[in-house]
Amino acid sequence: MTHRLSRHALVLGLAAALGLTGCGAGGETSSSPAAGGTGLEKTTIRVGALPVPDPVALYIAQAKGFFEEEGLTVEPVTITGGAAALPQIESGALDVSQTNYVSTFLAVSQGKKIKLVADMYQAAPNAFTIMVPKDSPIKTVADLKGRTILVNNLRNIATLAVTSQLKAVGLTENDVKFAEKPFPEMGNAINSGQADAGWFTEPFITANQKTLGFRTVADTMTGPTAELPIAGWMATQEWAQKHPKTLAAFQRAIARAQQLASADRKEIEAALATYTKIDAGTAAAITLGTYPSTLDAARLQKVADLMLEYQYISAPIDVKSVIASAAG
Amino acid sequence: MAAARLLRGVAGVAGFLVAGELVIRFGLSEDLVFPAPSAVLREAVWLPSDAVFLRGTAATLTNWALGLLIATAVAVPAGVLLGALPPVERAIRPVLEFMRPIPSVAIIPLAILLIPVDELMKVSVIVYASLWPILINTLYGMHDVDPMAKDTLRAFGFGRSAVLARVSLPSAAPFIATGVRIAAGVALVLAVSAELVAGGTAGIGVYVTTAGSGNRTDLMLAATFWAGVLGVAANLALLAGERRLFHWHRVRTGAAG
Fold first, then answer.
1. What is the pLDDT of residues B41-67, one digit of tens each?
2. What strand order describes the sheet that includes A114-122?
3. Which residues contact B145 (CB under 8 A, 6 or more apart)?
4. What does the pLDDT read at residue B147?
5. Whose CA is closest to B216, among B78, B82, B46, B64?
6. Touching check for B159 and chain A: CB below 8 Å?
7. Contact check, Cβ <8 Å, A276/B29
8. Do A84 and B215 make contact, defined as CB atoms within 8 angstroms?
9. pLDDT value at B31 more than 90
């Protein structure tokens, strides 16, 4: 999930400006030589994740010692969005990071050399919904015609999911207006008349239901988007090639944690308390997606194909080529 | 005098908080959810018992102090040098005037791209932003040196470096201190902004991001409140230091009280 909270910054191409501080790009490489015993190319890795339920496996694996058993020391780093994490894996500030698949395929279509290394989060019914105030005249998806819908990011997973629901009732994205707003601000923005509806995920679905009495108009993960893969773990192609054993160790630990998360919701709730500010009551109430333990190209292909259908990308992407091969 | 001023300050803050509380509780429509000052302050009181927040505050303050220190170490000698060599200053001035107004927050994405070590990236943007107020104030300080005093020392046969050490530097010092104090505020803004944009393992900005993702606006504001408290505390500490070190300067320039 790209979850942009505070991005008030613009890129200004003034490399010279930085150079003057005497703190330009450090030539440091953080790769350590092969560690004895485990044979891992790198034993300490920095992994970027959002403080949301999607990357819970990282924190479960950490708490249960799954990484340690693989000889891996993982340093979780809070990121502010998949799009913001991309330059961080490119610069080497992060080894692996959370990403949402739409962002990944957009980046791949722009020629970025990144690879998906593990699956993370997949949509389940009612985990991503369009919501409106309780007294709104909007009752169905068709009623959204001519309305403004808030999304966390434009031209990303939210707009793709909503557009696919619009198509089912004969509308296109041109029949509505999308506007960007961070999740925590959407409820108030809709109630103050800035928009008519919003695309929400947890814990905001539960929160807006409870505090503002919002009502769900539609689940956006049905029909063509049912069980849509949402988020995964990415690394640069170069990193994946250079660290095949470290990558395999990371993948094994994450897969174990994904299985645990799928088997026992209590594990998820316990972990959420450690890295998010979602309180126990909310954690027990929210609707979660699923946590697949294998990265399946056929499933992911659906995302790339939808993106092509709605012209998020101009040429087809063969998802197999974006997945890091097991051999490195 | 001082007591009356303090009282007025306290009354101002209290009035502001009460007004905020009333507007949010009774003025805002029930359809809008916004934490009232009392709720935010309650969370703020508890925040120091949150280990994650404490670690974050320590990380932010470390970056802040390091950035400010490096900026001072670079900008003061540069300012003194430029101030002592007017032709060089005239040559460099246009570049300075061009770079100074660039919003420092805007270089954060560029820094993320260029600097692979997170802490170094954050310290770098803090250094960049803090350089300007210190450099400019040092330059003003150097310009403000009493020419008569310099000439007098020269007349007695003192060399350039002696004039610099005995007249120019002491005379410019209060200006430099003001520059550092202004930079301290700027540095805190950048320390938190860099965390909000880039994330990280710990920091006040990282805590705010995490609170926002969990729909805890009250916690976001409580953490922001502490950032404000730190800024005020740093300013007061530096101001007290200036008063103590440079009381003679205040007398000379006739600054009040």
1. 999 999 999 999 999 999 999 999 999
2. A73-78, A44-49, A96-100, A229-236, A114-122
3. B167, B168, B171, B172
4. 86
5. B46
6. no
7. no
8. no
9. no
* Predicted confidence (pLDDT) per residue in B192-222, tens digit: 999 999 999 999 999 999 999 998 989 999 9
User: Tokens 């694996």 belong to which residue?
Assistant: A61
List, for chain A, all residue ranges whose pLDDT scores fall below the cut of 50: 1-36, 327-328
Residues in chain B with CB shorter than 8 Å from the CB of A91 are 112-116
Mean of per-residue pLDDT scores for chain B: 89
List, in order of start, the domains of chain A with CATH numbers. 40-124+228-322 (3.40.190.10), 128-225 (3.40.190.10)
For residues A133 and A159, give the distance between their C-alpha atoms in angstroms, rounded to a whole number.
20
**For an interface test with A, which of B98, B108, B215 has the most A Cβ atoms less than 10 Å from its Cβ?**
B215
Nearest chain B CA: its distance from A50 CA (Å): 8
Asked if pLDDT for residue B178 goes beyond 60, the answer is yes
Task: Return the CATH fold of B35-253.
Answer: MetI-like fold (1.10.3720)
Q: Is B187 an interface residue toward A (CB < 8 Å)?
A: no
Nearest to B201 among A13, A77, A88 (CB): A77
ipTM of the complex: 0.80
CB contact under 8 A, B201 and A76: yes
Total beta-carbon pairs less than 8 A apart between chain A and chain B: 166
* Helix (H) or strand (E) segment spanning residue A151: strand A148-151
Question: What residue spans define the domains of chain B?
Answer: 1-34, 35-253
